[in-house]
Amino acid sequence: MKIYKEIVFLLQKNNYICTYQNIKINFMYTSKIKGTGYYVPENIITNEDLTKLMDTTDEWIKERTGIEQRRHATKGKDTTTNMGVRAAQMAIENAKIDKSEIDFLIFATLSPDYYFPGCGVLAQKELNLNTIGALDIRNQCSGFVYALSVADQFIKTGMYKNILVIGAEIQSPALDMTTRGRNVSVIFGDGAGAVVLSRSDNNKQGILSSHLHSEGVHAEELAMISPGVTNKWVPELIKENNPDDTSYYPYMNGQFVFKNAVVRFSEVIMEGLKTNNLTKEDINLLIPHQANLRISQFIQQKFQLTDSQVFNNIQKYGNTTAASIPIALAEAVEQGRIKENDLVVLAAFGSGFTWGSVIIRW
Ligand code: UT7
Q1: 194-207 b/e with 16+ CB inside 10 Å = b?
Q2: Where residue 21 falls among pLDDT bands split at 50, 70, 90?
Q3: pLDDT tens per residue across span 305-328
Q4: How far is the CA of 52 from the centre of ligand 1 (A)?
Q5: Which carries the bigger pLDDT value, residue 229 or residue 96?
Q6: What is the pLDDT of residues 25-74, one digit of tens each?
Q7: Is the C-beta atom of 302 inside 6 A of ligand 1?
């Protein structure tokens, strides 16, 4: 009996999977969000401010998107990395760990500081972390959900103990701030959010499951084509210097994206609930990617959730793509909207198309 106990202890310690009489015994860890943080640039841009740049109105923007204001980065002050780092510092502080304990870093963004290298290594440098691995994720609005899912796998299998997951965006400089680009430029904003995901021995709490999907056939329905190596090469873009070339501005087929978003959000939330034998009644807080308030309201109605069961802050920040879920999560924690053992559902949909959900027992 003593030897048996020692073997089990060793298996658990080293996270081995063993098979006994064809029964697979899987000693996996659980990962738990230990700390959350966020940072948004100081510069507030109201709907009224936008009316001075393009043919739009406060009423149109509020009615179609719910957005009242968003933050725009200041050139020379804010970078995607330094905003991500500020959010990360808050998350590390809230996690009550020393930054030397972080053993991996994942950075999700569609708006990196450089074409290459990615923001992961820049954040590793700015935070002065050990020479840990740094991974960049390019999954746009579902970037944070993808990043969290990857971090979860690394922790569950025992490879890492504390992973810093950052989602940060500076999208404003790439927006077409004229009437031509108004359907896109009124929606997006800048900001950063982060979490520390840590190993836990309590298998009743933490990330229960994550669910990731993509449908590349719709890649061009929400995309920024240039600069890339398919359409026009950088020397061509420079030579042409053509202000009518919109390929270097984000393009969005808004209605098509909206229709797909409401379907995929619902599917992937249901998938997560079913996997864990849960129902919509079990949800304490749904944090949808802040794409458009009307999308969140559609999902809320479909799942018959009350206002207190859905978290929205798009009114203040607009759609901050990979940063939207970690900012919302950090604000929800700050406002006391999440209690221990609550069922928290994160769900995202966006360019790619990519979408996903993460089901968490807090
Ligand atoms: O986070 C990634 C995923 N993204 C999303 O989930 C976004 C999904 N899509 C949407 O949120 C909505 O489609 C938008 C908010 C982008 C657009 O709303 P919409 O109700 O689908 O408007 P629309 O593009 O069909 O345009 C309706 C009208 C058009 O005018 P006409 O052709 O009817 O005369 C547009 O030119 O509204 C016009 N319009 C605007 N008017 C004032 C488009 N943008 C604006 C604007 N201000 N900013």
Answers
A1: bbbbbbbeeeebbb
A2: low
A3: 999 999 999 999 999 999 999 999
A4: 18
A5: 96
A6: 556 899 999 999 999 999 999 999 999 999 999 999 999 999 999 999 99
A7: no
pTM above 0.90, yes or no: yes
Q: How far is CA 28 from the centre of its chain?
A: 25
Q: Cβ(22) to ligand 1 under 6 A?
A: no
- Supply 137's token pair: 């994720």
| Rounded Cα gap, residues 124 and 4, in angstroms | 43
- Which of 23-37, 84-98, 173-187 shows the lowest per-residue confidence on average (mean pLDDT)? 23-37
DSSP result, 20-75:
ETTEEEE---EEEEEEEEEE--S-EEEHHHHHTTSS--HHHHHHHH---EEE---T
Q: Whose CA is nearest to atom 20 of ligand 1?
A: 64
- Residue 283: CB partners within 8 Å, gap ≥ 6? 273, 303, 305, 309, 343, 345
Output the CA 50–ligand 1 centroid distance in Å.
Answer: 15
Confidence of residue 203 (pLDDT cuts 50, 70, 90): confident
Taking the C-alpha atoms of residue 232 and residue 241, their distance in angstroms, rounded to an integer, is 12
For tokens 């009518």, what's the residue? 244
Centre of ligand 1 from the C-alpha of residue 331, in Å: 28
Report the SS3 class of residue 274. Answer: helix
Nearest CA to ligand 1 atom 27: 183
Which residue is closest in CA terms to ligand 1's atom 30? 183
User: What is the crossing angle of helices 80-95 and 119-126, to 10°?
Assistant: 60
- Cα–Cα distance, 351 to 263 (Å, whole number): 15
Give residue 15's pLDDT.
46
Residue pointed to by tokens 């390019």: 138
Q: How many CB atoms lie within 10 A of CB 280?
A: 15
Rounded to an integer, the average pLDDT of 344-350 is: 98
CA 338 to chain centre: 18
Contact partners, residue 13, CB within 8 Å, separation at least 6 = none
For the stretch 2-18, pLDDT in tens is: 655 665 555 554 444 55
